[in-house]
Design goal:
The protein contains 8 helices and no strands. It is globular, with a radius of gyration of 14 Å. Helix 2 packs across helix 3 (35-47) and helix 3 runs parallel beside helix 8. It is mainly α.
């Protein structure tokens, strides 16, 4: 099982990244948000609070691997969140690539079906938090 081998919380002392990680995980656990929505909402709150909360609805179709089980919804929602904050195609593309590389290095795959087949569904709240924290870390550097 790749989860037990690779998953460790990112905590490099970065307060804002840790806040986003914890908030996204809690939003997911609340049952009111799925993975993509929780990442989007935590990033919106910390980096683009001027955006209406309704923008989170733009990622509602990404949960569970876009309902087809392909790419992890947290990664998909995170990609949209990066674009929402940066409003710059070139920077968004670069950070999206970095996010995918980081996720694959850390978890082995970005495929929701594989992640959920090899791990209990309860792993999703952790992945959701980890992605939000990583995005916050990346956005702070840009």
């Amino acid at each position: 099982m790749f989860w037990s081998k690779k998953a460790t919380p990112d905590n490099n002392g970065n307060g804002l990244a840790e806040e986003c990680r914890a908030e996204a995980e809690e939003l997911y656990r609340s049952g009111k948000y799925h993975c993509a929505e929780a990442v989007m909402e935590s990033i919106r709150r910390k980096f683009a609070p001027e955006m209406p909360s309704a923008v989170v609805g733009t990622v509602s179709g990404f949960g569970g691997g876009s309902a087809s089980g392909c790419i992890c919804g947290a990664v998909s929602g995170g990609t949209v969140a990066i674009g929402m904050v940066l409003q710059d195609k070139k920077k968004t593309t670069s950070l999206t690539k970095d996010l995918h590389v980081w996720f694959k290095q850390k978890y082995g795959v970005t495929c929701c079906k594989i992640i959920r087949a090899e791990n209990p569904k309860s792993v999703c709240h952790v992945l959701t938090g980890e992605v939000a924290g990583k995005i916050a870390e990346m956005l702070q550097k840009n």
